[in-house]
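Run log, item B.
One chain of 476 residues. Sequence copied directly from the ordering sheet:
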Amino acid sequence: MSKTVVDVWVADLTFPGYMDRWLKLGEEFNAKHPDYQVNVVGKDFRLFPVDIADAARAGNPPAVAEYYFYLVHQARDSVKPDGSPLFVPIERAVAGRDEILGEPNVLPDLIAAGREYYSINGELTAIPSVGTTSLIYANLDMLEQAGITKMPVTWDEVTAACEAVAAGPNPPEKPITWSNHGTFFQQAVASQGGQLVNNDNGRSGRATKADLSSKEILAFVKWWQRLHADGHYLWTGKIPDWENTYKAFDEQRVAMRISSSNDVNYMVAAAKASGVRLGVGIMPYNSHVPYHGNAIAGTSLSVTAGLDKAVEDGALAFLMFAHNPRNDANRHKFNSFFPVTHAGYNLLEEEGWFDEHPYHRVASDHVMKFPPNAIVDETAKANIVPPSTGAMMGDFAGNQDVMTNAMGDVLNGADAEERFAEATIEAQTVLETYERNIQGTGPVTEETLRVEYFRDAEWYSGLVMEKVQQLDYDGK
């Protein structure tokens, strides 16, 4: 008897063993559903959106396709040769069913941060597959030598910690570092309630105007600039340069590093190998304005529109299977991605994972709770948990290039307000160019489907991976 084939294309993020887990999920689903053949294919993370567009134009797109969080808008804009939408909102496809092919519907159990980010006009368009946020990591031995006894959670506390570390005994080269990367701008702007584009960050209507000179961006930029001018921030001179900010922490040339929650395992490995105590805290925020939550990062999975009913059901069932509590919890353990369902989080809690690995709890707390002592306005309080809607715009990667290049110039001496006023003009051009280039076809070119080169895949094969392998990838 022939099997129903379901092609699933995911971004191969190149982390060791990353695709092994995806392939195993496909094998386990196929064994459980012998009438189906789910084929999971890992695509080059730099080129996969163009591969999807090419397949769609040829009339054979995969049943399920993965996109980075900043490509949600491009996924929505993608069309088939007849001009109809390439993807169907997953909530619409599920149509309120409690289960698909016996796999329980996990959509109602998604944490709010993931649901809100991937929803448009209240409708969930895709299911989050990778969830990350930004965190601060610290060498607790260095902080305590400087008299700092708790992790800094605000910009002011980071500044005070930097001053204490710099003035303390045996100070490192610099107190703090982080990569010049767009995700930190997004976090800083979102936490202050700011927006990168108009029309409610592109969610109540298409974004038509970019703004990289808002008071929220400039507050972050000037705080960052002051840390650098005062000799506290280690600027590697490269963009984004995740590798050298990691090495600076690993070599104990800095006391603190801001990075992705995905780096928990790597930072734990560095601390363990060096024999230092590691502290992990939330992304520091501006305590002088109300806290509005932070924008998450990661990826999501979309379902192609117009599939044969059996194929669509198989695609949806596989997504529910891949996100069931056990698989959600295992994905977190292996890759440090925060669990995207309450059931996955609760399973980890029940099994004692977070008690044994407290570092891993921080990211989930960050996206599910308001920080202690934060100013929270009445609108935010009504949401109970910090909102996470982020910006939705065309060529988000191009926008990030503009802001990081501008920040590089500021760190090299340019006036912050003047340079980010110029950046706003550049970002506007990027936005308008995207809108012009998708007319009639949707995004199909490398320019309209640009993927930022956000990590050097190669550096994981060196020192950092040797250390992580010693942890057996579980953060112990």
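Observations after the first pass:
- Confidence is low (pLDDT under 50) at residues 454-463, 472-476.
- The radius of gyration is 22 Å.
Flagged for discussion on Thursday.
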